[in-house]
Design goal:
The complex is a heterodimer of chains A (431) and B (220). In chain A, helix 3 runs antiparallel to helix 4 (261-282), helix 5 (293-303) crosses helix 7 and helix 7 packs antiparallel against helix 9 (398-408). With 431 residues, chain A is an alpha+beta fold. In chain A, the strands form 4 sheets. Chain A has a 5-stranded antiparallel β-sheet with strand order 4-3-7-6-5. Chain A is rod-shaped. Chain A has helices spanning 5-54, 146-198, 213-254, 261-282, 293-303, 305-311, 329-346, 377-382, 398-408; strands at 55-58, 61-64, 81-86, 89-93, 109-115, 121-130, 137-145, 291-292, 314-318, 324-325, 350-356, 360-367, 412-417, 423-430. Among the domains of chain A are: 5-152; 289-431, Heat Shock Protein 90. The longest helix of chain B is centred in the middle third of the chain and has 15 residues, at 105-119. Chain B folds into 2 domains: 2-119, Response regulator (Rossmann fold), CATH 3.40.50.2300; 126-216, Winged helix-like DNA-binding domain superfamily/Winged helix DNA-binding domain (Arc Repressor Mutant, subunit A, Orthogonal Bundle), CATH 1.10.10. In chain B, strands 2-1-3-4-5 form a 5-stranded parallel β-sheet, sandwiched between helices. Helix content of chain B is 41%, strand content 21%. In chain B, helix 1 (10-22) crosses helix 5, helix 2 (33-42) packs parallel to helix 3 (59-68) and helix 6 (152-163) packs across helix 8 (187-201). Chain B is globular. Classes of the chains: A alpha+beta (431), B alpha/beta (220). The interface between A and B is medium-sized, with 36 and 32 residues.
Chain lengths: 431, 220
């Protein structure tokens, strides 16, 4: 079984073409054979007629007045023979027969079953006439060599076969082109779908061929439904967080700060946060989203405005205006937000946010704080994994969240030493 | 100072309110978005504590409507999710600060006080107005370095005047920042309290501008 549509269509076209061409060849060559044979028969009939015209009756005996002058009938064993009989009596015969005798079936006859003395096939025409002045019946037999008929036929059939073969090749090439062109819209659909997956486009463009439109519409419907379901489940998660954390806040403030219950409350808070993030990361992503990066950086710095102002920190932003993050805005907000918050927390007076595009999208946040010793980096990143049990609450888990998000989008978080002196947190993502 | 608390959980709303009253605030509580939006748009507050997850009208929607109507009071949002999407949405709608649940009441109080101070144009938590000094975080007012003994109402008036020193504060403005929403505003008692305050902070510091209001002067 051939798996590709293209293969199937081409195989079908090839079978059909071969059958059609073979059928055409058989039909045309059979028509040609009849035509050529008819021509020979007509020639033989003309010779028979001229022989009949030369018949004379003298004293009740039939004689031949004159014989046709035709070189073919003079050449011995040429296959071109004629013979005139009256009953069993031979009246005359062509020179080519020498002393041979043609014996055909009785009655008028046209057919190709005759045999020459050497076994070669003969086309035979036999006419019986009764002359007006004679009682005797005269039989005229004319033969033509089958070889010549076949040669004539072959001379016509060979160019016919070549012509049909050329036609076949042309049609085969045409069907390859036709199938390829027909499938091009499918290829385009696939490219479009890949663009959606990469986030270059939120939905499929409607194909210009009507046959693919229902398919594209179905896919778009599925994409929309996916987005709606994700949004709804996130809303539920948000509501869940709200309805759990609000009473938790009240409970925490009802207890004295050194009460043993505070540790339990902190643990519950971590658990809620951990499960929320887990659900968020495993809940999948809305496809076809592109988020411009520069506005998100502006928004995050708006949120961090007062903490930065209180510390007297300045931020340097180096982001191409067209740089885009190939996924949802909230994931980018989480990445930039956590990295910047971390930088504001540890930095002294300066932080730098730089975005470079290309084969990979690189988002780097650097500060001039104490930085992170190289052996501490894995520990900082591992915190997220153990968060449900004994991890620190609040601020400590920002980098772990970013590392998880980077991994979710096929990238990674690198922690290096910044040229500003502190930490350089770098997120590399496939563009 | 007046604070509006918009929080649907009655326990938490009451806790916030008590903590703020203890710090010298007068508070109004709204338990849903619509009521909160109405109070914030019609009354005058120095700060609003706004929960984002509210029934009837979301916190973001309430904040957006306030800002659309020209309400400029500083707003501190309370978010349960604690993710950056919530914070960004809040700040884009016009929030000034945030606290993530679960929080300690002290933290929210400190942030609210810092917002009021910033809104009045003071960068540092301690505001100096002549010989008077207000520690906005502790709520302590000193005169020449020694703490003043003030009643709650006196402290409210003086705190507001120190925040807005050297500027005429009308009696209407003052009353709007002193009373809860459903209290009768009483200019007479303000007059009486101003008189008592004059004795405590020294003559000439709080001046009356007839027909206009009061000025707390920092230079003679």
């Amino acid at each position: 079984m051939i798996r590709s549509i293209r293969g199937r269509l081409l195989l079908l076209a090839a079978v059909w073409l071969c059958a059609a061409l073979l059928g055409a060849f058989l039909l045309i060559s059979s028509l040609l054979r009849d035509f050529v044979t008819d021509r020979f028969d007509a020639e033989a009939a003309a010779i028979a007629d001229s022989l009949i015209g030369q018949l004379q009756v003298q004293d009740g005996a039939v004689t031949l007045d004159d014989t046709p002058v035709d070189a073919r009938f003079l050449l011995p064993f040429s296959g071109w023979y004629w013979q005139v009989d009256a009953g069993d009596r031979l009246i005359d015969r062509s020179a080519s027969l020498l002393d041979g005798r043609l014996s055909g079936p009785a009655g008028d006859f046209t057919g190709g079953a005759g045999r020459d003395s050497d076994g070669a096939g003969l086309r035979t025409l036999r006419r019986e006439v009764t002359l007006p002045d004679s009682e005797a019946m005269v039989a005229i037999t004319v033969t033509a060599p089958m070889d010549q008929i076949r040669d004539s036929l072959r001379q016509i059939v060979r160019p016919l076969a070549v012509a049909l073969a050329v036609l076949g090749l042309g049609l085969a090439a045409a069907s390859v082109i036709q199938v390829t062109a027909g499938l091009k819209s499918l290829v385009r659909l696939r490219v479009d779908l890949a663009r959606v997956r990469r986030g270059d486009s939120p939905r499929l463009a409607m194909p210009d061929v009507t046959e693919l439109r229902p398919l594209a519409a179905e896919i778009n419907g599925a994409l929309d439904q996916n987005a709606v379901l994700l949004t709804r489940s996130r809303q539920h998660l948000g509501n869940l967080a709200h309805s759990l954390k609000t009473p938790l806040t009240a409970l925490s403030n009802d207890l004295p700060q050194d009460h043993a219950g505070q540790a339990l409350i902190a643990r519950m808070d971590r658990l809620i946060g951990w499960h929320l993030r887990r659900a968020r990361q495993q809940g999948g992503r809305v496809l076809g989203q592109q988020t411009p990066i520069a506005p998100v950086i502006d928004d995050i710095l708006l949120v961090l405005r007062w903490p930065m102002q209180d510390k007297g920190m300045t931020a340097q932003i180096d982001c191409p205006p067209d740089a885009a993050f190939p996924a949802e805005r909230q994931d980018l907000e989480e990445i930039v937000g956590n990295l910047c918050e971390n930088a504001v927390k540890w930095g002294r007076s300066h932080l730098r946010i730089s975005v470079t595009t290309g084969a990979t999208l690189r988002l780097a946040v650097q500060d001039d704080g104490p930085g992170l010793p190289p052996d501490q980096a894995p520990k900082a990143l591992a915190r997220g994994g153990r968060l449900d049990e004994q991890g620190p609450s609040g601020a400590g888990l920002g980098l772990a969240i970013v590392a998880d998000l980077a991994a979710l989008h096929g990238g990674e978080l690198l922690l290096e030493r910044s040229e500003l002196g502190g930490l350089a947190a770098i997120v590399d993502l496939p563009a | 100072m007046r604070a509006l608390i918009v929080e649907d959980d009655p326990t938490l709303a009451e806790q916030l309110s008590q903590a703020m009253i203890a710090a010298g605030f007068v508070t109004d509580i709204a338990h849903d978005g619509e009521q909160g939006e109405f109070l914030g748009a019609t009354e005058t507050y120095d700060v609003a504590i706004l929960d984002l997850g509210l029934p009837t009208l979301s916190g973001i929607e309430v904040l957006t409507r306030w800002r659309d109507q020209g309400v400029t009071m500083p707003v501190l949002i309370l978010t349960a999710r604690g993710d950056w999407t919530d914070k960004v949405a809040g700040f884009r709608a016009g929030a000034d600060d945030y606290a993530v649940k679960p929080f300690r009441l002290e933290e929210v109080l400190l942030r609210a006080q810092a917002l009021i101070r910033r809104a009045a144009g003071h960068a540092r938590p301690v505001i100096q107005a002549g010989k008077l000094q207000l520690d906005s975080q502790l709520g302590v007012i000193t005169h020449d370095g020694s703490p003043l003994k003030l009643t709650a109402f006196e402290a409210r008036i003086l705190t507001y005047l120190i925040h807005h020193h050297d500027r005429i504060v009308s009696r209407t403005e003052l009353s709007e920042h002193l009373y809860e929403a459903e209290t009768d505003r009483d200019f007479k008692s303000i007059e009486v309290v101003i008189g008592r305050l004059r004795k405590k902070v020294g003559e000439g510091v709080i001046q009356t501008r007839r027909g206009e209001g009061y000025v707390l002067r920092t230079a003679p």
